[in-house]
Structure formats: C-alpha cells, structure tokens
Write a structure and sequence with these properties.
Strand content of chain A: 25-35%
Number of domains of chain B: 2
Radius of gyration of chain A: 21 Å
Largest interface: A-B, 92 and 82 residues
Shape of chain B: globular
CATH class of the largest domain in chain B: Alpha Beta
Number of helices of chain B: 7
Strand content of chain B: 25-35%
Order of helices and strands of chain A: EEEHEHEHEHEEEEEEEEHEHEHEEH
Helix content of chain B: 25-40%
Helix content of chain A: 25-40%
Number of strands of chain A: 18
Order of helices and strands of chain B: EEEHEHEHEHEEEEHEHEEH
Oligomer: heterodimer
Strand order of the largest sheet of chain A: 7-11-6-1-4-5-12
Bound molecules: flavin-adenine dinucleotide, adenosine monophosphate
CATH architecture of the largest domain in chain B: 3-Layer(aba) Sandwich
Distance between the termini of chain A: 55 Å
Structural class of chain B: alpha/beta
CATH architecture of the largest domain in chain A: 3-Layer(aba) Sandwich
CATH superfamily of the largest domain in chain A: HUPs
Number of domains of chain A: 2
Chain lengths: ~325, ~260
C-alpha cells in the first residue's frame, strides 16, 4: 500500500529553491487533510543543514542523500538514487518544481517507476477516489487539462513556481533519514564536463515574482538598460517578446510566449509589446498585467489591468524613480 | 550514422482553443504544423548526415493527418519516415503510450543519435526524457550546440542560470533548443522528391507492443479554458504623471510592489 507525500527539494549551492518551499507549504496542507506523512527528499553534498529548513516548511521526514557523487546535478545519478528510494518506500504522490532540473528528472524517474508524470501543474486538488486531481496548462496556457491517476502509484507531477503561497516557517523538527547512495553503472554515461554560470543576481524568469518585459517597441538592445534599472528596483526578472529575440536584442531563453517560457508572476509589465496571441499564451495567467504602449489599439490593453498609452521612453524612467521612492 | 528525428504534428500557434460539445478540444478549424522545435531537430539531423553520411529517419506518433508533417520532414531532406498510428494511443493525451511507442519504434531503427524538439507546444509532456529512459540511454535537453566525435558527443545545454557542457556516449537523445541552428525551408524539388520517399505506418501490434500494457496511467478528466481577462484601467495624463500614478496604484491598490 502506497503511503506518504513527497517533495523533491531542489537545492543549489546549499540553498533551497523557492518553488520547493512553496511545494512543501502546499503539500503540508494536503498531507494534514489526508492524514499522510510529508517527506522532503534532498540530494546533494554537504546539505545536512537544509533538513531543518524543510521541517520548518512542513516536512515530517527528510530523506537526505548526501554524497560527493551528487554534488552537481546529473540526470543519471539523481535518477538512480531517487528511483531506488521510491521503489523501496512506495509514496503516494511525488512533487517536483517545474524547473530545468525538475523537468529533466521527473520524466526519467517516472518512466523507471513505470508511471506517468503530469508536467507544469498549476493546481492540485484533493480527491477521495483519485487521491488528487491535477490541473495542467496545455497549448502554453490557452487551455487546461484536469488529469488524475486513478490507480497507478506514485502519482508524479512537476508544479509551476509562484502558484502556491509560502507558509510561515514554524519551529519544528523532522525525522532525518540518511539515504545510502549508490549509482547504477548505466546511469553514469553522461558526464558533466563544465558549468558556465551567468552573472548572478537576476532571478530566473519562470520563478520571478515580477517580470519587466520589452518588445519591438524597445527599438534596440541598448535600451534594455532602462528595463534592467526598473527590474533592479523591483527585484524583477527581465523578459522579451519574440520580436525582440528575433531582432537579436535578447537571447531566446528570455522569450516569453508559446514558443518561449510560460510565466505566472504576480506582476508583469509589458513595455512596447503589442500582445500577439503567442505572447499572451505565455503570460496571460500573470496576476496583474501592466501595459505601456503608444498605440491605444494594441491588443495588450485588452488583458492589462493597468495601461498607459504613451511613449515607453518617457514613462519607464519615471516609473523606475517613483517605484524607488515608494519602496525606499 | 543512423539518425532518428522525432517530429510531432501540433496546432498552429495562431490557433484559438475551442472546446467542442463532446468536451474535447476541437481540432476541426485549426491549421496543423510541425512542432516548431522539431524543425531544429530535423535540421540538426540533416547537418549531421551532411558531415558523417548515413540516413535520417523521421518518426511520429499521431493520426493519419500527421503524414503531412512527416512529408515536410522528408521535403526538408529526411530519407524515410515512420508513422505510428494506433487508436489505442489518443495522439496528444496519452503520453505514456506515446513515449513507449516512440521508444519501441526507435529501437527498431538502431539509431546512433535521436533528435527531438525541446518541447512540444501543445502538451509539452517531456516525451524525450521518457523515450531515453525507456531505451536506457542518456538524454541531453535544451541543446544549443552539438559536437560528435566517434562514439562520443559533447552538447551544450541551457539550464536555469547558465549552461552546461555534457559529454555522453552514443546512442543518446538530444532535444533541440531554437538557437541550435536555422531550419531550412523545403525547396520545390524537395517537396516533389518527398512524395516518392518511403512513409511506413505501424500499429502498436506491428511494433510488438501490447496496447493494454502501454495504456496510460494518467487520465484526462476534462478540459477548461482560462477565465477571460478584462481590460482594466487606462491611466491618462502626461507620461510622467501617469507613471507616478501607476506606481501608486501598484503599491496601494494592487499591492504587488
Ligand atoms: C510559430 C510562432 C511562434 C511564436 N511564438 C512567440 C512567442 O513565444 N512569444 C512572442 O512574444 N511572440 C511569438 N510569436 C510572434 C508573435 O506573433 C508576434 O510577432 C510578437 O509577439 C510581436 O512582438 P512585439 O509585441 O514585441 O512586436 P510588435 O507586434 O511589433 O509590437 C511592438 C509594439 O510596441 C509599441 N511601441 C513601439 N514604440 C513604442 C514606444 N516608443 N513606446 C511604447 N510603445 C511602443 C507598438 O505600438 C507595438 O504595439 C510567434 C509567432 C509564430 C509565427
Ligand atoms: N507524438 C509524438 N510523435 C513524435 N515525436 C514526439 C511526439 N510527442 C513528442 N515528440 C517529440 O518529443 C519532443 C518533446 O515533446 P514534449 O515532451 O511533449 O514537449 C517533441 O519536440 C518531439 O520531438
């Protein structure tokens, strides 16, 4: 009989990613309702101190796999360890953040466990018959599918960042279980040769609470400095439309939309973006949308909560200054 | 070099999604295209063939209509194509079955390299990783550069906050990011030639799979559309005054900054 709810807690350089804490927070509510135990699974090296933080966000139990082989994420080693742990403990539900690592790891672990995985879920509802029903966007957010796994266990899902609120950390302790680490030979066929990090400081687009995004109206790459300034003040990430990416002003990884990233920030500020269907697909679920565009007929205004019809080159610098004052 | 490219037929990005009276997604008025990232996968396959020789085989799981997408791959320059078409695989919704079927079809072709798109813009179900796992081989996703040296490949892949260089032993699966290359357009001659190239169709049983054994574990309970957004407030006035007003509203009313 399967039992327990698990959250794969993603850490990098000894810091737990926010989405993992969001998942622990939400899974705790579900675990209480179901009368199930909530376990955090943490893989890495020198990560013992993270167990306490996982407990504060709701974990009753922490599976800790602490080993040099897990220092950097590799698909093979992480799959090996996690798949074994699942096989031995038979959880009911395993949740991952829908991050680069989550999207890489979850499908492999699921396939090895002989089950499906629901990708990029934005809703988890408790269900008496199915344990949970999951809601996932399809067509980059133009529609949603509600899915369930009536009998196969574990149910596996990756969950989008910024969907669930963080719990207030509580003074609690978890039962820490040390996981023996052994990696199957066959899982060592991909070798991580090098990691090239970008300048740190900016939050990842899909995880950002606030996104400042620029389109063709930015006129050129040099003008993104203006958006960077606003983003600095707001602690935001900077995105772009495809027109800006195709013009070579921003790299593809900053593209928001159906063929870029799908984002759900609290605040999305679209500057010089017309609001094409492919762009709206990627950001239409943002909580608050602001549009700054000189064309009063631009489609983006049809979805914007606040709109300024005007020249972004005049509006954005003032907005930056005003925000700075308000937030001082 | 045996190169297999997985291509999926998807709705055009312009498509508005409509839920039909049967509760399913209505595909009657949509234009179907090759998944945009799969164009990059085909292109990479063709570039590898130009360099190392061999054959490029396009494989798809889909309905009869997916033949068009395979013909597009053939017109771009792929040598032959295989369509796995079986009522037991509800094309887009049954991801588990689709992944198992793709893995089985691919393994029968003895590939050195399998290329896929970074994501399918309809369901985005992480099929590539599942196919790789079912085949027991490595997978590198979001690949921006691929270099082959004998039985080894070195790929750059995008990760959150940077990139990684990964070395794998072949065979392996690589998923193309857009910046990997610039897909070629099919030429008129290419389109003519494509008509005569081999396009085989197979069912699950033809592949040696038991439809019951690969039945999906996740079921779709229903579809819904996002709530329509309404146009909100336009802030009038001079740019500077409007910007100041906006900052106040974001702070005081929307409480998002
Ligand atoms: C297969 C396919 C996939 C696609 N995928 C995506 C995707 O993922 N993401 C995406 O974004 N697009 C995507 N597109 C492209 C999409 O159709 C649009 O072409 C694109 O979103 C337009 O970008 P834009 O709004 O920046 O440019 P435009 O549509 O040219 O709009 C620029 C806007 O800037 C305004 N402007 C100009 N100057 C100023 C100024 N000084 N001050 C204020 N406003 C100003 C103009 O009024 C205009 O509204 C895709 C298209 C296809 C065919
Ligand atoms: N039904 C399918 N037929 C062929 N290839 C597919 C199919 N589904 C997914 N793929 C391949 O897997 C890639 C990633 O798809 P997905 O994992 O669904 O985002 C696509 O770009 C295709 O290369």
């Amino acid at each position: 009989m399967a039992k327990g709810i698990w959250v794969f807690v993603e850490q990098s350089q000894g810091k737990i990613r926010k989405v993992s804490l969001e998942l622990l927070s939400q899974a705790k509510i579900l675990a209480n309702e179901k009368g199930e135990e909530l376990a955090a699974v943490i893989l890495g090296q020198g990560i013992g101190s993270l167990a306490g933080e996982a407990a504060q966000y709701g974990a009753d139990k922490v599976y800790l796999a602490d080993d040099a082989k897990l220092a950097a994420y590799t698909t093979g080693a992480y799959t090996s360890v996690l798949a074994k742990l699942i096989r031995e403990n038979e959880p009911n539900l395993v949740l991952f953040g829908n991050t680069a690592i989550g999207k890489d790891l979850a499908p492999r672990v699921a396939t090895r466990a002989g089950v499906d995985v629901a990708i990029d879920c934005v809703g988890i509802e408790s269900d008496a018959a199915n344990f949970v029903n999951l809601t996932r966007p399809i067509y980059a957010g133009k529609a949603f599918a509600k899915v369930a796994s009536p009998s196969a266990r574990p149910i596996m899902a990756t969950v989008r960042p910024n969907i669930f609120p963080l719990a207030e950390p509580a003074a609690r302790e978890a039962n820490v279980v040390t996981v023996p680490v052994s990696v199957d030979e066959a899982d060592l066929r991909a070798i991580l040769k090098d990691v090239i990090s970008q300048a740190a400081g900016r939050v990842e687009l899909t995880e950002a609470n606030i996104i400042v995004s620029g389109g063709r109206g930015m006129k050129g790459p040099e003008n993104y400095v203006m958006l960077e300034d606003l983003a600095d003040v707001l602690g935001a990430a900077v995105g772009a439309s495809r027109a800006a990416v195709d013009s070579g002003w921003k790299e593809h990884k900053f593209q928001v939309g159906q063929t870029g990233k799908t984002v759900s920030p609290t605040l999305y500020i679209a500057c010089g973006i017309s609001g094409a269907i492919q762009h709206l697909a990627g950001m239409g679920s943002s909580k608050v949308i602001v549009a700054i565009n000189k064309d009063p007929e631009a489609n983006i205004f049809a979805v914007a909560d606040y709109g300024i019809v005007g020249d972004l080159f005049q509006v954005v610098p003032v907005l930056t200054e005003e925000c700075k004052k308000l937030m001082a | 070099m045996n190169i297999v490219v997985l291509v999926k037929q998807v709705f055009d990005t312009e498509a508005k999604i409509v839920i039909g009276s049967d509760g399913k997604i209505d595909d009657s008025n949509v234009t179907l295209i090759m998944n945009p990232y799969d164009e990059n996968a085909v292109e990479e396959g063709l570039l590898l063939k130009e360099k190392f020789g061999g054959e490029v085989i396009a494989v798809s799981v889909g309905t009869d209509k997916a033949q068009e997408t395979l013909r597009t791959a053939l017109a771009m320059g792929a040598d032959r194509a295989v369509l796995v078409n079986d009522p037991a695989i509800q094309a887009a919704s049954d991801e588990f079955a689709a992944a198992q079927a793709l893995a089985k079809a691919v393994s029968g072709l003895n590939p050195d390299i399998i290329l896929t798109g970074r994501v399918a813009i309809d369901y985005g179900s992480k099929i590539s990783g599942r196919v790789a796992e079912a085949l027991g081989i490595p997978h590198v996703n979001t690949v921006t550069k691929l270099e082959i040296d004998g039985s080894k490949a070195v790929a750059s892949r995008e990760v959150d906050g940077g990139s990684e260089l990964i070395e794998v032993t072949l065979p392996a699966v690589f998923s193309a990011q857009k910046s990997l290359n610039n897909p070629r357009y099919p030429t008129v001659a290419g389109i003519m030639k494509a008509k005569k190239k081999e396009l085989k169709t197979a069912t699950l049983v033809d592949l040696g799979l038991d439809p019951a054994a690969v039945a999906g574990k996740l079921q779709i309970l229903g579809f819904s559309l996002p709530p329509a957004r309404k146009a909100g407030r336009k802030i009038d006035g001079e740019p500077a005054a409007a910007a100041a007003e906006l900052a106040k509203l974001l702070r005081g009313e929307a409480k998002v900054i």
